[in-house]
Amino acid sequence: MMKPRVVIADDHVLLHGALEKLLEEECEVLGCFADGQALLDTVPRLKPEVLVVDIAMPLINGLDSAQRIKRLLPQAKLIFMTASEDPDVMDEAFRRGASGYLLKHSAASELLTAIREVRCGRRYITPLMAQHAEWDGLRQPPSPTKTERLTVRQREILQLLAEGHSMRKAAGVLGIRPRTVAYHKYRLMEKFGLKNSADVIQFAIKRHLVARFNS
Hints:
By secondary structure, this protein is an alpha/beta fold. Helices cover about 45% and strands about 15% of the residues. The chain has helices spanning about 15-25, 35-45, 60-70, 85-95, 110-120, 125-130, 150-160, 165-175, 180-190, 195-205, and strands at about 5-10, 30-35, 50-55, 75-80, 100-105, 125.
């Protein structure tokens, strides 16, 4: 059997070499990407068999970029590799077309196992998360909470930040000052107990505030 053609997308560039080294004996690594836009721009012409994608990436987050690539390359297998142990984020990854879900602190050998499994048409979930999977279908979206009280502006800002825009870029899109975006972002972080930008992205995903691409 030919080696699977794999691409890697993770904003931690130092991981690229380690992942390439790990995969080189069993896989043909076509390239490594540090943001979702570069992944989306380049991967369709590379036609990989498997994509290993981090969720919290700049410019376009991993879920959106991988979902759009899946529409262009429907046979490609998506493996999300993330720090998030949130079952709702995992569920959303599978709704977006994932075949595998790994945690970054999983054993390195698990990535090779995941690639073997998805290449055979099976799903792979890291054992640390498997207890949360409910495969008569995915869990229903979480019940509405105080998220409903977000203003239109807050939802707009969350959407843009979750898509990977910087605060300055989001401000330009909305025609407001960067410090206004920062004010709303940090108020949201305080209100919902979010610690960093990755938490903001995951919050938007699990509350279904990130618009899916329909084209």
